[in-house]
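Lab notebook, design round three. We kept the backbone fixed and only want residue identities now. Task for the bench partner: fill in a sequence for the structure below.
Input structure tokens:
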């Protein structure tokens, strides 16, 4: 029973993540990205351009769903 509940929570986290990614892609396509001061500093330190960030947001692929992992670990600790 616990496993099924955890699986359901993980699926819910992935669906939430998919909505976030979809919104980010729409904003990137519309060129409506706001970069924080910290973001600008990190981009400069790594020699990453705004255009490359925008391109990654539009065409990039998620290789690891960190949000689902953190959410699952957080729920596990509360149990």
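Proposed sequence:
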């Amino acid at each position: 029973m616990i496993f099924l509940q955890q699986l359901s929570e993980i699926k819910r986290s992935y669906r939430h993540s998919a909505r976030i990614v979809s919104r980010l892609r729409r904003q990137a396509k519309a060129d409506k990205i706001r970069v924080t001061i910290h973001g600008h500093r990190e981009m400069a330190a790594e020699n990453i351009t705004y255009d490359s960030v925008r391109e990654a947001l539009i065409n990039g692929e998620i290789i690891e769903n960190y949000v689902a992992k953190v959410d699952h670990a957080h729920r596990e600790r509360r149990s």
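Keep this in mind before ordering anything: Residues 2-72 form one domain.
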